[in-house]
Amino acid sequence: MSLLSTVARIALVSILFASTPALAKEPLTDWPHITSAIPQDAATEAKIAKMVAGMSLRDKVAQMTQVEIKTVTPQDIRTYQFGSVLNGGGSWPNMDKYATAKDWVAMADSFHAQAKIPLLWGTDAVHGHSNVVGATLFPHNIGLGAARDPELIGDIAAATGKAVRATGVNWAFAPTLAVVEDGRWGRTYEGFSSDPQLIHDYARAYVDGMQGNFQGPGNIVATAKHYIGDGGTAQGIDQGITPASEAELINVHAQGYFGALEAGVQTVMVSYSSWTDTGTGKAYGKMHGNGYLVNDVLKGKMGFDGFVISDWNAIEQIPGCTKDRCPQAINAGVDMIMVPFDWKAFIDNTVADVEIGDIPMSRIDDAVTRILRVKMRAGLFGAKPSASPYAGKPQALQARDLARRAVAETLVLLKNEGGLPLKAGAKILVVGKSANNMANQSGGWSITWQGTETSNADYPVGDSLLTAIKATNTGGTVTYSAAGADVDVSQFDVVVAVIGETPYAEGKGDIKPDQSLAHSDRYPEDIAALNAVSGKGKPVVTVFESGRTVYANDLINASDAFVAAWLPGTEGKGVTDVLFGQKDFKGVLPFAWPGAPCEGRTLFPAGYGLSYTNQATVTTLEFIETPGCPHAQSH
Ligand code: GLC
């Protein structure tokens, strides 16, 4: 991005959002100091200093080490005294996908009993407690961005905290605060929006809802991630290089961190991505080794006094580092290292690095001080996991009404020229691969890391869209044919087609630079299902489930009504509440909707959305077939 366009972009951003405090009237020219909602407390600091003074170097390094639950026993906790454990996506106590809340709490208590300093247990509760069978899964962040409702975000974060406490866990690696600039990124749906101001407001509401002041039994530690610029990598390549001026980092990519720090977020996770400063041309390289942005900016200028955690084995990506040794990351300001497997060697190597002077003891003491500060603020001392009023309670994993309300607010109506609202009592034909597929409805980070290798049986609490339509269409009939083939459409009043993407997470979801954004290139079965039922004299209402906006002119042309539903999660009735007219459409596009398969042409701008009272006609759209895109294209 050229300097001129950067300045223009920042000017536009500040003009668009100048009315709110988060974005200065003029673009910020330096990193602001942020006053946290959680101030330092002298008595706590004195307690921490005393503890640190009494710890051995090995104890200190162990506090900085986060290990995967798959690889440790309570005896290991006793022996090594790690500071933290995590369960990665698709990791459960005893590797049992069906582990109950009580099973989770039992493991948490068994670890707690062996730890002299209480453990933090981190989990990717990124749309509800999304690893746990029976938990309510909220819409992924892309849908929440369409709702433009910070209060809803706070409620969801609070409900997520309760669900996490139900399993004896006390830390969520959420919210993701990426300002996503290229929909080809496989993590687009983990971002709320392309609008930095909205992300600022959401970050503040989310952290406040999840952490509160740590007085509520459902409060847990939140994580602002992935610092910084994860959503701005060139061509949307996951873990790629973000070409941005420092002014753009400040005025665009940092807005979520301003909001999160204002609300007192206690942890920040570093991004796998790299930064190249387009203002100076300097290639800073991997964020995990960027002492300027972590030490000098986040902790120095912005005043962050919680702790910084690395991502999964991310330290090995720094030149000269390995999974089990990286003085560069620690010296850059990373305080806790996510070492899922190689934790024994990591502790030995890091102790050695301090002993030979590669890591100053002052850096170790600062890291441990920050970790203990967060643990004390979070009230971990003296409270075993099973003491929580939510511990072991399956009902605390659920928030069905809230999720149903959220789903309804996320839906964006892009075309409304027939079929809506559905009328109960009708003869409804339902087609499409995703109508009765809770995995497609929930997306990645659902039960498993990728959201795959699951079945509807893994979602015992919730409703697929098909179930929801059957439950709502009282007095009518509902017939389901996934492919829409061999069905006489004339026998029905209306067709509902539920199509879209299949689950993915992280880089596995990237659309490669030479691929197009055309949905039908990747999922030809969907246009096939639509063509089987379209133009047969009955209205076709398409519900499109996806983790991004895509080029879909062919699908829109084959539909009389077209609803972007994003990744709604377990509460399908939130969709039918709107399709049957009990509620009106409220959502607007969180990202621009592409109007061409490659270059950045826009069909509908961010902020666009129709409703039952706000009509517009979509003319027949030109559909450009293309075998792929020139590699260098940026969307
Ligand atoms: C993953 C993700 C990060 C997640 C972490 C732990 O690689 O980048 O968002 O919190 O590992 O699962």
TrEMBL record:
A Pfam family it matches: Glyco_hydro_3_C
GO biological process per UniProt: glucan catabolic process
Keyword Transferase carried by entry: no
One term of GO molecular function: beta-glucosidase activity
Keywords: Glycosidase, Hydrolase, Signal
Keyword rRNA-binding annotated: no
Domain spans labelled Glycoside hydrolase family 3 N-terminal: 57-374
Signal sequence residues: 1-24
SUPFAM superfamilies per the UniProt record, alphabetical: (Trans)glycosidases, Beta-D-glucan exohydrolase, C-terminal domain
Glycoside hydrolase family 3 C-terminal domain sequence ranges: 411-612
UniProt similarity note: Belongs to the glycosyl hydrolase 3 family.
Protein name: 1,4-B-D-glucan glucohydrolase
